[in-house]
Amino acid sequence: CRICVAERGAICSNLEVPFPSECLASIALNSLAPDREPRRGGITKELLVTGSVRWTADEARVLRVSVGSFLDHLSLVLETMEAFGPPAEQ
Which of 10, 33, 39, 77 could bridge to 6 as Cys pair (CB 3.0-4.6 Å)? Predict the structure, then answer.
């Protein structure tokens, strides 16, 4: 996880989540992408199928809450993947 200062004083954070396959990364992305940021403005979140997540926020507090919430959801997705195993081939 990296934290940096972006344009106009905004704070950004990057996180790389390694997945064993593109299929599992895609499943995680589809599970996590619907969770939009609840606050209008002040923060953006970009998720990529490569396992990369990037946040940009106006305030450190907002960034901390968003990253913490995302990590909670990611933990649940990973636990679910582990419990049910890889997807069946079709």
Answer: 10
